[in-house]
Amino acid sequence: MDCEDMQMIISEEPNLSERKEGGKRGRKPGRKASNEKIDIRAKLERSRQSARECRARKKLRYQYLEELVADREKAVLALRAELERYRLWSSELSEGRIPNGFQQLLEESGFVKQEIVV
C-alpha cells in the first residue's frame, strides 16, 4: 500500500464529528414533555410506597422471629428446670430415699397402679 491508497481509505471513512443528532445515544437534554414529568413523579411515588411496604414486612418478620426466640428460650428454661429436678431425684434415689413428687410421677406415667381403697 502506498500513500495514495491510505489517503483514499481514510477519506472513505465517515467523519465522526458529522453524526446526525438522531444517532446519539442516551437522554436528550431539554426534550422532556410534561407527561414524562408526571410519569417520573408516579414512579417515585411507587418507589416510596414499595419501600414503606418493604420496611413494614421487615418489621413484622423481626417481630415474628423475636417471639419465636422468646418461646424457645422459655422452653429451654422449662427443660433445664425439669432436668435439674430429675438430677435431684436421681441423687435422692441413689441414697435410698423416695423424693417428693416421684410417686405421683410414677402413677401419672402408668408405671405404678394406684391402689383403690374400698
Automatic annotation (TrEMBL):
Residues of the BZIP domain: 44-87
Biased composition (Basic and acidic residues): 33-42
Assigned keywords, A-Z: Activator, DNA-binding, Nucleus, Transcription, Transcription regulation
One GO MF term: DNA binding
Region annotation (Disordered) ranges: 1-42
Subcellular location: Nucleus
Annotated GO CC locations: nucleus
Family, per entry: Belongs to the bZIP family. ATF subfamily.
Protein name as annotated: BZIP domain-containing protein
